[in-house]
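Listing 4. Sequential folding, example run.
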Amino acid sequence: MAKVNVSLDAELVIEAMLLSGTRSPQDAVELLVRDYVSRGHRTEARTGDVADELRRLEVGRTEPEAAG
């Protein structure tokens, strides 16, 4: 896997370390990013993604409305 170096404010990294319970800045940031990404995937699984919503809207426009 490719690696990326990012410069962050020291206070931000210390806060990330405290929240994640790690002693390594690298581990702390990695854990927080992985958690953020997994939450996004879980949310998409529950609610669908943008493409699902656009398809739903298109189907709603093309169906004739029921007579009243």
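-- end of first protein; second protein begins --
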Amino acid sequence: MARADQLKALLRAYAGEEDAQFAAIALQMAADEAQKGHVRLAAELKALVEAAQARQQSKPLVRPGPVPMAQPKGELAELLTVRYPRHHLLEMVVAPDVEAKLKRVLKEQRSHDQLSGHGLSPRRKLLLVGPPGTGKTLTASVLATELRLPLFVARFDTLITKFMGESASKLRLVFEALKATRGVYLFDEFDSLGLQRGSQHDVAEMRRTLNMFLQLIEQDTSESIVIAATNHGDSLDTALFRRFDDVIRYSAPNEAQIEQLLRNGLAILENPNMDYAPLIQVALGLSHADIARACQDSMKDAVLEGLPHVSFESVLLHLQERSASLKALKSS
């Protein structure tokens, strides 16, 4: 029978509508069954996949019609970028408390009418705190996908200027967009705006912009979801925390999460004899993003070398390289 990790990878590919990945995993399952001596089952699985691929190729190429998208216009186009992500909660590997908080946000958002009927509002102002690569930006994409909303990302390179009052004026435009178009609005690297007032990095224009943000987020009664993400929670102005409905803290993955990340990342070309224990020890301290990239690099090695599975040595090498880079960065 198919392994649990193969079934999960198959479902993830199906949920993400990744036809090529779905077919690759199904063919891998067929190959595994053949190795176990289940020749007839393997042949049936392979025939089903090939038949599906043939049907897909025989369909006439139809140019899809325009997809209605909420595109920022005018000055907003310089302040916000928009995309429609396709990342599901099923794909995330996070701590149980983080997952529980995200499920709570989704449940409340989906029960908006039920809550409002009792004079209550769903959580929609979130502060995400944690090291780089631990899933904060992915969280915004997941919430947008699960709620079928556009994801708007604030561009701080154009939002923050040196001219008096201009940054606050631009920020006001963004909050007006929140009311006009429901979506998930991400203020990434929020510490560039939310520094402690009076800190050595504080400047007059930043202080004015932060004060405006505090006013706007407190007054905001839109139905959009506002997400602020930062790598430096300790440097944020304490006044910010009480403006949010929930603060979600992210951390580097533990051993169980590392194993799940490795299995997920290597699922398409996974070696059934892979010994994960030594890899987990090397990966301790790495972020989710570092581990995912190491898996991607290992699968590229296997494809370029014509191997049926990723090799233990390749995964170990790429994890060691990222671990060494992390140590060098911390020591610098």
